[in-house]
Here is the input.
Amino acid sequence: MNNPSAANPLGPMSYRYLTGVTPWAISGNQATVNSILSAYGNIIYPTSEGGISKAGIWKGTMMDGTQASWWYGIDWFQIQVAQDLAAAVINGSNQNPPLVYDQNGINSLLAVAQGRANSAVKFQCALSITITATSFADYTTANPDDYAAGIYKGFQATVVGQNGFLTIGFYLDAVQFA
Here is the structure.
């Protein structure tokens, strides 16, 4: 279920259907349920509020209140971009012309990282991602030992995670005409 792709975008963890589980009984447990949910705990609960006769995870958050799918999406991007960059360096060492440590090489790797960022947004792992790179000249001037060691730590990413709905408000004005 959590293998994000264009055909299978990452969905919120909140309110996901679960099978083979017994949900908490609604009757007589409201105080306990409210206490668990107020402390950002998760429970298996009936989805009957929506007229659906299944069990679902209620609310799909981490213990700090952030949505679990938000962190899953961020982690997915971080793992995938690291793998993509490693593959680009390995493959780049075996192509002609080779990938070398210069501005063109940094630009090539930046494009790889941006491609994965675009996929992460398309797969709903993030709302937006901005990736930047420190220029070859600026980085090697500030870190001359890194160049000699073949180390480049000049990429930066700003990721805005993707959230789902946890609560919906609906306001109604009932008016009677005279």
